[in-house]
Design brief:
Mean pLDDT: 76
Strand order of the largest sheet: 1-4-2-3-5
Distance between the termini: 20 Å
InterPro entries: RusA-like_sf
GO molecular function: magnesium ion binding
Largest sheet: 5 strands, mixed
């Protein structure tokens, strides 16, 4: 079975993919968390994304961001909340790429839910930085490839 941590084959498929941790529940917009606690969690998410996104440095132009969320459990979460919870991570990516995050045109997301496998195994987010139609097709190809390679997940 393919492990999310070993999804390096995606880097052969496309050079514009970053594997990030699943967003902390306290970053969800509908969750009422003390600002101090939320700030520390957001800072860590931003730093983690910055560290993992360094390979994207040097890309130019405007970008679209596309995410594949590998859910940690079968809890149904709103896609817009998941994307909003990724805001600190997107900021970290922008810093690593040395671009203003205003250059990120828009985000869209697809979710893969767990079947009956243990919780939190393979959970995470694959973020694709898209700047052309070709890269959009690569993103969709990666999505369908993941469905086939990760048997514990099913399409939402």
């Amino acid at each position: 079975m393919l492990n999310f941590d070993d999804c390096d084959y995606l880097e052969n498929l496309t050079q514009n993919c970053v594997k990030l941790p699943f967003p902390h529940s306290d970053l969800m917009p509908n969750k009422k968390t003390h600002w101090g606690k939320k700030s520390k969690i957001a800072e860590k998410a931003k730093y983690d994304a910055w560290l993992l996104s360094k390979k994207l440095h040097g890309r130019t132009g405007k970008y679209g961001l596309a995410c594949i969320f590998l859910m940690p459990d079968n809890v149904n979460r709103d896609t817009d909340n998941l994307v909003a919870a990724m805001k600190p991570a997107f900021d970290g990516m922008a810093e690593a790429m040395r671009v203003n995050d205003a250059k990120f045109r828009g985000q869209f997301a697809l979710k893969l839910y767990r079947r009956d496998y243990p919780k939190n195994i393979n959970a995470g987010v694959l973020v694709f930085v898209l700047s052309s139609e070709q890269e959009t097709f690569e993103y969709l190809a990666a999505y369908f490839d993941l469905i086939n390679r990760l048997p514990e997940f099913q399409a939402a």
